Amino acid sequence: MNFTPPLRIFVGWDIREQAAFDVCCDSIFRHASVPVSVEAIGMGVEKFRGVYWRPTEMRRGPAGREQLWDVISNAPMSTGFSFARFLVPHLAGFHGWAVFCDCDFMFRADVAKLFALADPKYAVQVVKHDYVTGLDVVKMDGQVNPSYPRKNWSSLVLWNCQHPSNAVVTPELVNAQTGRDLHGFSWLPDHLIGGLPFEWNWLELEPLAVHFTRGTPDMPGHDGAAYADEYRRYLKGDDHAVEPEGRAAPHQESDVGQGKGSVVQGRE
């Protein structure tokens, strides 16, 4: 498919994960071959007000730390963007294509190649992990890590925002359905959920985008994670961060941060 730049990308934002958000955005920009628009999405993002009203509480988790709790699901929320991702079609005006990813991603390839995988017969395309939490009952900074069907599918979504089946994904639906229904894409029949190569949401293979789902390397206890050194180079703003596709980093001017908004960037 042909896309008119900028490519639209929504990255989950949580006040506790500003460093991860910055690394994710920087890694997208460094590899992008075309202009991209990156937008923060999550609780606390200014433009998110008025479209998100799920009741949320703070409760103490098994690790003894306070964490967000979704009242509708009666279940923990690891981040402030747990449900924000499902508002992407609405925020995009139910038009065109967009990518959502968690903030703990680090891209190692041109995101234009991800958009090139778009197939209009699907409403969404995801990496279909068969993932269970096993012994990892907590993750990140002590957040509860529950198991549920299709876990991690929604951590990276190539949204066909204009697909007729996504017209039902309104703020009213997103603010009413349980987390299991939303993360399981329950409004879609299976044949409308397309797949993506596993390299785009790495848990085991050689990655094009690394998803630090158990915790980013700047979090205590996760400093030895695979690709942690590359992550830290991004975090320091090192111009010599690994560039697996051999591109030099483009000039960047960004005001994305602390949930403030979006930035458009292209190659010089």
Helices, by number, come to 6
Level of helix content?
10-25%
- Mean pLDDT, all residues: 84
Classify the fold: give the CATH topology: Spore Coat Polysaccharide Biosynthesis Protein SpsA, Chain A
| CATH architecture name | Alpha-Beta Complex
Structural class: alpha+beta
Quaternary state of this entry equals single chain
**Overall CATH class:** Alpha Beta
Number of domains: 1
Radius of gyration: 17 Å
Can you summarize the main beta sheet?
7 strands, mixed
Strand content: 15-25%
Q: What is the overall silhouette? A: globular
Termini separation (Å)?
24 Å
Number of DSSP strand runs:
14
SSE string: EHEEEEHEEHEEEEHHEEHE
Q: Going across the major beta sheet, what is the strand order?
A: 12-8-11-6-1-2-14
State the low-pLDDT regions, or none. Answer: 139-143, 242-255
List the helices and strands and how they pair.
Layout: E1 7-12, H1 18-31, E2 36-41, E3 56-60, E4 66-70, E5 75-76, H2 88-91, E6 97-101, E7 105-107, H3 111-115, E8 124-126, E9 138-139, E10 143-144, E11 156-160, H4 171-174, H5 179-183, E12 193-195, E13 209-211, H6 228-235, E14 262-265
Parallel strand pairs: 1-2, 1-6, 8-12
Antiparallel strand pairs: 2-14, 3-4, 4-5, 6-11, 7-13, 8-11, 9-10
Description:
This protein has 268 residues and is α+β, with helices and mostly antiparallel strands. It has a single domain (7-262), classed as Spore Coat Polysaccharide Biosynthesis Protein SpsA, Chain A, CATH 3.90.550. The chain is built from 6 helices and 14 strands. The chain has helices at 18-31, 88-91, 111-115, 171-174, 179-183, 228-235; strands spanning 7-12, 36-41, 56-60, 66-70, 75-76, 97-101, 105-107, 124-126, 138-139, 143-144, 156-160, 193-195, 209-211, 262-265. Strands 12-8-11-6-1-2-14 form a 7-stranded mixed β-sheet. A 3-stranded antiparallel β-sheet has the order 3-4-5, with no helix packed on it. The longest helix is centred in the N-terminal third of the chain and has 14 residues, at 18-31. The radius of gyration is 17 Å and the shape is globular. It starts with 6 loop residues before the first strand and ends with a strand. The model is unreliable at 139-143 and 242-255 (pLDDT under 50).
